[in-house]
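Hey, quick one: can you model this chain's 3D structure?
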Amino acid sequence: MCSRCARDCSCCARDCSRCADVVVDVQEFVADEQELVTDEQDFVLDVQYIVVDMLELEADIKE
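Sure thing. Here's the predicted structure for all 63 residues.
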């Protein structure tokens, strides 16, 4: 019997393939979300660099 979903399986002590597929799907989803977070962090850094550049340009113009 599967320890995750309590379904009868051919391999009594192991998890069924259905549960294993779900675990893999969740891991892939988490990896995709982490990649999106990284992309968003990179975007924020790019915007911060642009703001710094604009402030430096503004300071140069005032001089």
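One thing worth noting: Residues 24-63 form one domain.
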